[in-house]
User: Fold these one by one.
Assistant:
Number 1:
Amino acid sequence: MNSRFLIVLTALAAATTLAACGQDSSKAAADAKKAATEAADKAKEAATKAAEATKEAAKEATDATKDAANKAADATKDAMKSSEAPKDSSAAPAAAPAEAPKKQ
């Protein structure tokens, strides 16, 4: 946006210089004003488009972050479920090994 502003100022300065040197100074001033107005309108349009693009990118980043957080929460829940001790009584503790008969 700064480069467009510099272009407008340069065009305005050139138009003013030509207007001062020529016979059609009022026409040159009107042309310079028209050019400045058009450049300002284009700069405004470009700024609006940039703001919209930034807003859309921020929304997409927020959605992606939310999705990743949900997936991480689900993975944590699954990990917690798999690390819990079995709660049912069907899993009996391992029996102690039988003693071998003693040799005499």
Note: The chain has a mean pLDDT of 77.
Number 2:
Amino acid sequence: MEPIRRALAQYYPFMFTKIADHGTGSIYAAEIHCQLCKDHRYVIMVAYANNYPVGSTTWVDQIPWFNLQTRTVEDDYNLKSVHHERPRVDLLQEKIKEHKVTQEGSYYFCQNLPITVGMLNDPRTNSKYQWASEMKLAQALETYHCTITFNVKNDSL
């Protein structure tokens, strides 16, 4: 198994529920408990399209996802929220470095992992410079404005 998948399976050791099929992808989500949030925090996986029914559940390392997101959204997918203990996972301590800034967000590379990390800007803020130029991958995930995408398409991931 790809090291980043193994690390994320350790970091998110709970079930994900399929919430939709969209084009060539299937979307899975887990709602993260947040007592002080008015919006909903989700960890979302976009996987290659599959025939599993909406409502089915799986672990993060059991589906060949190509995009993982931590998001804060107004949408309520009616999932039971889970408590996330945030275990320390060494691979997620890798530094990511900014390589592109747009009005929509900042994009980062990780020297030791084949991923691109996107940090989505809050549209209510007029600045395109909302994120640090360097941070740890775990820090990016905990913002709930983060996307992780594999740099190459590989069905064996």
Note: The mean pLDDT is 90.
Number 3:
Amino acid sequence: MKKQVDYDSRFQEEWYKMLRWAKNSGVQFLLLCFLVFMSGCGLNTHVVDTSATSSPVIISEPDHATIISVAATDDVAYLAESDRSLTARQANNGQVVWRQTGLAFLPKQYVWLVPTPKMLFDAYDSTPTTAFVEARQINTGRVLWRRAIPHELGPGFVAVMVDVNRVYVNTVFPLNQGLLYALDADNGQVRWQYAFQGQPMDTSVYSSNGVVAIRDRASNGSAHVIHGTDGSLLLSYTCPAGTNWRPAIDSSNVYVYCPGHFLQAYRISDGKLVWTAQNSSLQVNYWIENQGVLYSNTGDELQAFRAQDGTLLWKTTLPGGTLGPSVQNQLVGMMTASQVVMVFHAKDGTLAWKRPLNSSVLYTDIDADGFFLFGNDQAIDVWRSSDGRDILHTTTSSRIVWQPQVVNAHLYLWQFNGALEVVDLRIGNVLWQYVL
């Protein structure tokens, strides 16, 4: 998730509303957000205090530009700055790879940044009624194409995703309750548009394996799953109140939770029902697919189904109100209502490790590329996901923009005042800082 600095009141209201929604429902948008102070929990831990490490590279722009968006790949960090520039910096030391100036975004507006192997896609409001979506050459920043989207991008943010040669731009505005644009990633041409009829569209969008899903804003509304190639409707289903709406998608099937407590799989090729999960009397709060296995959380049980045919592989009892799951390196992570992190072996559901949290939770990320993140407004702790060991504790001078990114073991701590700190979690060193 990427947020702007110096928010106007409308953006701030919408952003915190999204955080509350994510916390209360246990949903990842990318995700699972709750946060915590951490102290010793009876483990044999090693905490790295960044104040004791080698001095980081300090970067300060002469015009005091602040960072308003951050995205990263394994080797490069991409920063949109308040002086309307876009800069690519080496992840290890902050050295400039390329810099482009003169972006046309409005003041107090963030920029969506989505890097891919060949292109960097960005999206931003250019006027109150027009937005630009751009594709740039990843190694130079040169604009390859630009597409004007002739409507406001919504209440301070818009969902943009790139998947299988499509750039999805989910807009929200009063006149027609929102449109989902599908652009050709190679040239920016609009391939199709999709709109709900009679219901306002939610700002979320999710896409994987050439399929895209959106939902309306009704409390017990509907989600639509759409073929990315031509915009045709694959299936729609009601989203029960209090549950995650987002489907799980693999190369063959779409997995959804439907009224009547049924977890079901539908074939992507023709939309036909493939299977209905066993133990369907239980409420399903969240589910994900990973390497041919569908993991679902009923709040009281963690279940694993073979994705191909719905066969129950294993299940294990959970404390009530458990949030999750996430899957990393053949481990399934969960967070209980009593603030205990529980991690299970993906192959059989046996407990790998668990660890309690010692303070009340605001935000947590248990899906951070080999690490679990916990923090408060100006502090963050990092655990290693394989064994729960402490990796890092650090504090910041300003409020942290949640949720921080971890890419290739680099932690990007972006702050509300527009500063950035980059930490190598493998050694605990602050590599470089962008300061005001």
Note: DSSP finds one helix and 37 strands in the chain.
